[in-house]
Amino acid sequence: MKKKLLISYAVLSLTFGSASALASEKADWGYSGHQGPENWAKLSGDNLSCDGKNQSPINLTGFIEADLTPLIFDYQQGGEQVINNGHTVQVNYQQGSSITIDGKHFNLLQFHFHAPSENHINGHSYPLEAHLVHADKNGNLAVVAVMFKEGKSNALLAKAWQSMPKHAGEQHKLTSKVNVDKLLPKNRDYYRFNGSLTTPPCSEGVRWLVMKDAVSASKTQIENFESALHEANNRPIQPLNARSVMQ
Ligand SMILES: [Zn+2]
């Protein structure tokens, strides 16, 4: 049965001339079983970085005192669509929002979520973590992470998840654009470390900027996200190796 499905998919892909779609289907990944995180590097030649030495997420601890320059946020209204891609629920952002770090502009591409949190802070896991993914003009990535604790309902989540796409491949247009600035804590202090994408292909060289203060989301909002994903979507903590976390 499985084989038959695979063959018909191959035919479909070839019919539409999409060999790359076939390759990505074969290399599909997940959070449990054979396709789980411990096997990501083996699933495809594209994922070799998943066995790298500078992987995310990590337990942020043993902080090095550094004079971190303030993170400059320049976020506009820009989230228009919410997508369930089977691995997370993501809001794609239109151009025009950015952060500045190391004197470089990084444009906001999208934000998405993990439950429970991927990164830990001083050994503490949170029920939900947002990743705001940015790229500079050379394709270097910077991710701002925001932790959520259970508490008051979150106004931005209420808007972004008003019509939660409940199934993989489902996509909804937001009734009004969102401004991800509303997701940030008031205190903009952050931790910084060098890491990777937390999903295949686990590319390294990613600037990680984890906000020190958590924001809140209601129990219902967290459960609403969990039920759209059907399983926990957090990669386990990775070894720190030769890295340190600055604050
Ligand atoms: Zn993420």
Defining traits:
17% helix; single chain; Carbonic Anhydrase II; alpha+beta; 247 residues; 11-stranded mixed β-sheet; 5 helices; 2 domains; binds zinc ion
Any overview of this molecule?
The protein has 247 residues and is an alpha+beta fold. It has 2 domains: 1-30; 35-229, Alpha carbonic anhydrase (Carbonic Anhydrase II). Helix content is 17%, strand content 31%. The chain is built from 5 helices and 13 strands. Strands 2, 3, 4, 5, 6, 8, 9, 10, 11, 12 and 13 form an 11-stranded mixed β-sheet that branches. The protein has a two-stranded parallel sheet with strand order 1-7. A hairpin with a 5-residue loop joins strand 8 (128-135) and strand 9. It is globular. Bound molecules: zinc ion (ZN).
**Helix-strand makeup class:** alpha+beta
SSE order = HHHEEEEEEEEEHEEEEH
In the CATH scheme, the class of the largest domain would be Alpha Beta
* Biggest β-sheet description: 11 strands, mixed
* Number of distinct helices: 5
- Please, what is the CATH homologous superfamily of the largest domain? Alpha carbonic anhydrase
Whole-number tally of structural domains: 2
Chain-averaged pLDDT: 90
Low-confidence region ranges: 1-27
Our measurement of the CA-to-CA distance between the termini, rounded to an integer number of angstroms, reads 53 Å
Proportion of residues in extended strands: 25-35%
What would CATH call the architecture of the largest domain? Roll
The distinct bound ligands, ions and cofactors come out as: zinc ion
In the CATH scheme, what's the topology name of the largest domain? Carbonic Anhydrase II
Shape: globular
How many beta-strand runs? 13
